[in-house]
Design a protein that fits this description.
Oligomer: single chain
Order of helices and strands: EHEEEHHEHEHHEHEEHHEHEHEHEHEHHH
Radius of gyration: 21 Å
Number of strands: 14
Length: 390
């Protein structure tokens, strides 16, 4: 049996796209006959605080869904201060090395290393070289370029340092996995390595198409409430009550407090439901008519995994953003698109869904289900992953 180790900064019981992406990959590898182990920090995301059941612990070893998990100490932080965020990344990058003797004894065939964070990826790549295991760099976002486009970082010494780490990481990698075609194109400007596009998609699941319900159109967003998504700005800029629609929000993050304040206002038509488990969130989403997928800024290489989660359930999409995500939705006719923070276009698209006839709505839902069945499901993606692991 081949042994795979995955190094990731995020893993359940943490929630969000990053944790779901790695847990989906780990469990799928196990089902395909691999022995899978995870090395990750003590759970702390998105609150920036160690989860209650893991407090006052330096190291935890456990098994979750047949996957061995080794959780290491981290200095957690959700601060907007760049130095504190860097310190948090560096803390886990260092604590990774307590697994050196474990890895030497285990002798994994391959180590899959998640990036970003860049410093964690760099540390993991060095670790793979020391134990002489094949490594695969799994690039979900292009850092520091994504941070620059989000306005989180400016060009300067810090940006130049992170860009240098990024380029070194690509050179240290044996094989590379990217979450989008744009990601692979970007990496190929630095190195030429064996690479694939691996989409963060759910397992194939047969669902019935959605029918448009009578009454008020209900829009749902489920995910991180952070800077990149811009949900708070959206709530403040759009009067959902005036539009005659409801906006339901699930998740957590640094904008949570502001969103709660908006939802508490009379007649806001914004409803905040907090964080729910990954097992329950799918059932919650099915209650609603349309799923919102926003990006605050155009981020080169970014394809939100929420697109694929929604189409699995046949939920038509309201997309706010540019790039490859918008192309996927347009090409497969999965919903309506508008540019990032173009609230006038978003309002226009909401009205289109609100006035859409039942047969038109049903057609969009069926196209979502078809795209999930034919292309964007885990079985199709894992067949590609097998080729790069072997």
């Amino acid at each position: 049996m081949k042994k795979i180790v995955i190094i990731s900064n995020y893993y359940p019981p943490e929630m969000g796209a990053a944790a779901n992406r790695i847990s989906n990959l780990a469990e799928a590898l196990y089902k395909r006959g691999y022995e899978v182990s995870i090395i990750s920090p003590l759970p702390n995301y998105p609150k920036g605080k160690i989860f209650e059941s893991y407090k006052k612990k330096f190291f935890v070893s456990e098994i979750l869904n047949n996957v061995n998990i080794r959780r290491c100490w981290i200095f957690p932080s959700k601060s907007k201060n760049g130095f504190l965020r860097l310190l948090s990344m560096l803390s886990f990058a260092c604590s990774l090395w307590i697994n050196l003797f474990y890895l030497l004894k285990k002798k994994p065939n391959s180590i899959i290393i998640q990036s970003p964070p860049l410093l964690v990826a760099f540390s993991g790549l060095l670790l793979s070289k020391v134990i002489r295991s094949k490594n695969i760099l799994n690039v979900s976002d292009i850092w520091p370029l994504s941070a620059l486009e989000l306005g989180v970082i400016k060009r300067g010494k810090m940006y130049a340092f992170l860009e240098k780490v990024e380029q070194v990481n690509y050179k240290l990698a044996d094989n590379i996995v990217g979450q989008s075609e744009e990601t692979i194109t970007h990496i190929c400007k630095t190195v030429t390595k064996r690479s694939i596009v691996y989409r963060n998609v759910p397992t194939y699941q047969k669902n019935e198409p959605k029918s448009k319900k009578k009454g008020t159109l209900k829009i749902v967003y489920a995910g991180l409430l952070g800077y990149a998504q811009g949900i708070l700005n959206l709530c403040e800029q759009i009067d959902f009550h005036q539009l005659g629609v409801e906006f339901h929000i699930y998740g957590g993050g640094m904008d949570e407090e502001g969103i709660v304040n908006v939802s508490n206002k009379e007649n806001s038509n914004v409803f905040f439901h907090g964080m729910v488990s990954s097992d329950r969130v799918s059932e919650e989403i099915k209650k609603y008519d349309v799923g919102l997928v926003p990006l605050k800024n155009k981020i080169y290489g970014a394809v939100p995994s929420k697109i694929f989660e929604l189409i699995q359930m046949g939920v038509p999409i309201l997309f706010c953003g540019e790039g490859e995500g918008a192309t996927i939705i347009t090409k497969n006719e999965l919903g309506l698109i508008g540019k990032s923070e173009d609230y006038n276009q978003l309002i226009h698209n909401i009205y289109i869904f609100k006035d859409m006839k039942k047969d038109e709505f049903l057609e969009v839902s069926n196209k979502c289900l078809k795209a999930h069945k034919d292309i964007y499901n885990l079985e199709v993606q894992m067949a590609k992953m097998d080729t790069i692991i072997s």
